[in-house]
Amino acid sequence: MPPKKKVRETRACTDIFLLGQPRSTPITVTKPLTRGDMVRYLHWSKEQAGNEGADWESLLSCPLLKGTSEASCFTKGCQTSAEVPGCGVFFAKHTGGWLKTGLPLMTDQSIKCHVREALKDWQSINKKSSRLKLPNLSLNQQNLVENFQLRMSQTFLITDKNAEEMIVKDRLRNDQQKEEDIAFLKSMKEDRKASVSTVDIQYQRKVENKIRRQELEQSRLVEEKTRKERSLETQENISEEGVEESSGEDDLVDINENKRKKKETSVTIEVPKNIVELLAPTANRYDVSSTALSTLLLQTVAAGGGNIDCLPLSRRQVERSSKKSIHEHAENVKESFKDKSKDKFFVCHFDGKQLKEFTGGIKATKERLSVLVSSPDLDHVQVLGAVGLDSQTGEAVFTGVLNLLEEFGLTNRIIGMSFDTTASNTGKHQGACARLETDLGRALLWLACRRHVMELHVKHVAKVMAENISGTKQTGPVNTVFKKVAR
Fold it and tell me: Collapsing DSSP states into helix, strand and coil, what is residue 417?
């Protein structure tokens, strides 16, 4: 029987249905793979392995590592066959250029599912190849072929489904890199106009450093865990074997070392003899009397084992020391303010109030005039003093304010006055404000209290409204509301 003639394989015989020739590389290497490129590569891999060398499933991915979703080919080399350079997952990640982009990718298990999906898409239409005779196709057949070719021309996308959100949150990328990566990802999903040029070396170094830090941290945790396990084993061995006998001195030393030190119940301090002068300003601020201050100090020194005879802590001594300390503190404040107030201008604020006093065992009510100055060049309002007044006349107010201004050297730097609208302040001839302008020899800015000024307007309105309601002239409000407002 004569031998059969060897059939010559032509290009038409080796073409993949609707995809052309199988190939190991995509048409362009500057862009990620299309779904068609993936199917063509799988056909080429099967040809290289031989019809009996591998089935479709073995070409999709190398076996996954146990307990992970990563393929073993990335640690041991691709295990598909000796002749095939890589499985489908390996090809998609390396030849497809996705690793160059630095974008977050799917796991190898998910990529394998996408490769299988692309292959099944081709296999489903290949079953109908006998009926799809180009170019004689019906309208439905044309739509079927066009939809398939459109799917095959789409990008074989293997980025993570939350890739855009992960890029925005990535602190290793700057703003420009984030914008470029997001724009590239959108282009791959739509028009595929973007391309992969070279690896971003700067970003790659950042990623490598981050991975290196994570590996070091992981190794440190493993070493620490191992050390703790060894320490527990050593303690268990010691407890099982028992502690060797030691001498009495050694036991005593161990006991003393293991004893917890008691907390100290006392603190050693040195009490200066002028402690009253140091504490007087604080005691006066919190209304601590001389008797209470002396008693408290005596009990404190006695409780600490000190000799109370060495300290002059009688009530009279405490009073004298307190007055002296307060006077010195006031002088220091005055001199400090004088230094700060040079070449500055101020507004003088003054107001009087009746206060109850207890001096020398006598209770009394006395008029006190508080005087303050303010300036935009200072960060606080300075109190000049609160002088006592024998009366509430304009002459008494004028004298009290002028004395304090002269004491602080501010008579030439006052440009305005802030006051309430009582007659003793606003009188045309005898008021404190007019007298101050006369004495200083210049006009000052009058800043009358706005609340007092508006009260007078409200009072006049209430009076007129009450007269209009009743029809007669009223000496006082006839309505409760007017009465409250008038006050």
Answer: strand
pLDDT class for 306, splitting at 50, 70, 90?
A: confident
For residue 339 the two structure tokens come to 């230094």
What would the two tokens of residue 210 be? 């981050």
- Provide the residue type at 290 as one letter: S
Pair of tokens at residue 100? 């160059």
Amino acid residing at 354 = Q
Sign, Cα dihedral of 98, 103, 106, 107: positive
> What pLDDT digit, counting tens, does each position of 155-212 carry?
888 888 888 888 888 888 888 888 888 888 888 888 787 777 666 666 667 767 777 8
Q: Cβ of 373: how many Cβ atoms within 10 Å?
A: 25
Among 145-149, 272-276, 341-345, 389-393, the range scoring the smallest mean pLDDT is 272-276
Q: Write out the DSSP string of 137-151.
A: --HHHHHHHHHHHHH
Cross-strand bridge partners of residue 356? 365
Q: Where are the alpha helices (DSSP H) in 267-419?
A: 275-285, 290-303, 315-340, 394-408
Cα gap 250→271, rounded to integer Å: 44
d(CA 141, CA 128): 10
Residues contacting residue 306 through CB under 8 Å, at least 6 positions apart: 271
- pLDDT tens digits along 82-108: 455 578 888 888 776 777 777 888 888
Question: CATH number of the domain at 344-448, please?
Answer: 3.30.420.10
C-alpha 258/C-alpha 342 separation (Å) is 66
> How far, CA to CA in Å, does 254 sit from each of 83, 239, 290, 405?
72, 17, 55, 75
- The secondary structure of residue 412, as a DSSP letter, is T
Q: In angstroms, rounded to a whole number, what is the distance separating the alpha carbons of residues 48 and 54?
A: 9
Q: Specify the pTM.
A: 0.42
In the sheet where 362-374 sits, what is the strand order? 382-389, 362-374, 346-359, 414-419, 445-448
- Please state, in angstroms and rounded to a whole number, the distance separating the CA atoms of residues 452 and 421: 6
Domain ranges of the chain: 11-198, 275-327, 344-448, 454-486
Q: Are 102 and 203 in contact (CB under 8 A)?
A: yes
